[in-house]
Write a structure and sequence with these properties.
By secondary structure, the protein is mainly alpha-helical. The chain contains eight helices and three strands, in the order αβββααααααα. The relative contact order is 0.12. Its main location: cytoplasm.
């Protein structure tokens, strides 16, 4: 996932990643000093390295919203494995995205990228009915997967467009 992010950001790659503990927390080995630990920390570091700070939000409020969704991604999406967890996550997101293009409002941020990577395996398995039930999530997910450089080698999740968009508006 972090390697996908590196490529998306246009970084040269070659970073060494490891995992730590039972929960497989990502670790980035740095040449100077201690390694960085945790998905959010490493991802934000990569964004700054690529000088794409706008992905972390522009205003203080956007930055906070991006941070909030990154935390949600790490605590809820990574932790959630049961059908019930998945349903709650999709319901939360669906409500949040009701009047928004992206998680932080009208700008594409790191939150969208990491949430997309975190939800990909869930979205692949949804039935057409489930995708229709979580229409805002489906619309957002479809939009993000077509964002240049995001999807990379991940499979394209198919949405039945005309049905999706006629109901969404």
């Amino acid at each position: 996932e972090l390697e996908l992010l590196e490529r998306l950001l246009g970084l040269p790659g070659g970073n060494k990643y490891g995992v730590q503990g039972e929960r497989k927390v990502p670790v980035l080995q740095t040449n100077s000093g201690p390694g960085l630990t945790g998905l959010m920390t490493i991802a934000a570091h990569l964004v700054r390295q690529a000088r794409k700070d706008q992905l972390l939000g522009s205003s203080a409020e956007e930055k906070a919203v991006v941070q909030q969704w990154l935390e949600y991604r790490v605590t809820r999406v990574n932790g959630g494995s049961s059908k019930e967890d998945t349903r709650i996550i999709l319901k939360d997101l669906n409500m949040h995205l009701e009047d928004k293009v992206y998680l932080a409002g009208n700008i594409f941020t790191l939150a969208d990228i990491l949430m997309y990577y975190g939800l990909h395996h869930i979205m692949v398995d949804l039935t057409v009915q489930e995708k229709e039930k979580y229409l805002n999530v489906s619309r957002w997910f479809n939009h993000i997967q077509h964002y240049p450089g995001v999807r990379q080698h991940l499979s394209n999740v198919v949405f039945i467009k005309n049905r999706l968009y006629t109901h969404a508006h």
